[in-house]
Design goal:
The protein is mainly alpha-helical. Helices cover 48% and strands 0% of the residues.
Length: 95
């Protein structure tokens, strides 16, 4: 859908019905190449381990490396890095 002013979605749909054409849906998923690169992930794992050894928390590592939490967790899981969560946070312990 266009973000510019002009034809809105209903108008485009009506035009497609009158003129007998269809809109092709965009590609949703199904990537041919993986999102990640194994060599880059190995470099990230080395940096994460080094920053952990210095004493930074997970949050500080994310900010230092400018990566998101999901990337950090993916690398920790893929390379089996022992990086415990901080104690006393909301998600620790029984609910």
């Amino acid at each position: 859908m266009s973000t510019k002013p002009g034809a809105i979605q209903n108008t485009l749909w009506t035009m497609s019905q009158r003129c007998d054409f269809k809109f092709v849906p965009g590609v949703q998923g199904g990537r041919d190449s993986p999102y990640t690169d194994a060599s880059e992930d190995a470099k990230l794992a080395d940096r994460i381990t080094a920053l952990r050894d210095v004493g930074l928390s997970r949050y500080q590592v994310q900010k230092q490396m400018t990566i998101c939490n999901r990337t950090l967790l993916r690398i920790i899981k893929a390379f089996d890095i022992d990086f415990p969560r901080a104690k006393g946070k909301r998600c620790d312990g029984p609910i």
